[in-house]
Amino acid sequence: MEEYEEVQTLDDIDSIELSDITEEELNYLVKQAKYLYYNSDKALLYSFGGSILESSLNSFGHVRFFIKMVERPDFVHYWFNKLTNNHMSRLEKILNRIG
Q1: Domain carrying residue 34
Q2: Which of 9, 36, 78, 89 is paired with 66 by a 20 to 30 Å CA distance?
Q3: Is residue 43 part of a domain?
Q4: From first to last of its 99 residues, what are the pLDDT tens digits of the chain?
């Protein structure tokens, strides 16, 4: 069973609690970024893993999500906006701490 198999409406999407980055995770990222910045001559890259489509396919099921893309573009757009806002919020917190 896919994680969001029962999600059918925009209200259902609103009821989904997406994870936020924790203070512990932020502290770890700051520590690692400082260490690498001062101990390497290489560029630093943070692999965020925020693929909107891939996470949607995994959460709803590939076939089910592709069908929703055709039959319910409003649903897909609403879901993509929710995910994008969550990812942007997480990235903003990271950038505010690391720079």
Answers
A1: 21-38+48-98
A2: 89
A3: no
A4: 568 989 999 999 999 999 999 999 999 999 999 999 999 999 988 887 778 999 999 999 999 999 999 999 999 999 999 999 999 999 999 999 987
Residue 12 belongs to a domain:
no
Smallest CA-to-CA distance from 13 within 62, 76, 64 is with: 76
6 domain residue, yes or no: no
| 28 part of a folded domain | yes
Instruction: Please state, as a whole number, how many other Cβ atoms lie within 10 Å of the Cβ of residue 18.
Output: 12
Q: What is the pTM assigned to this prediction?
A: 0.84
Residue 52: what residue type?
I
In this structure, the dihedral spanned by the alpha carbons of residues 86, 23, 93 and 31, taken in order and rounded to 10 degrees, is -130
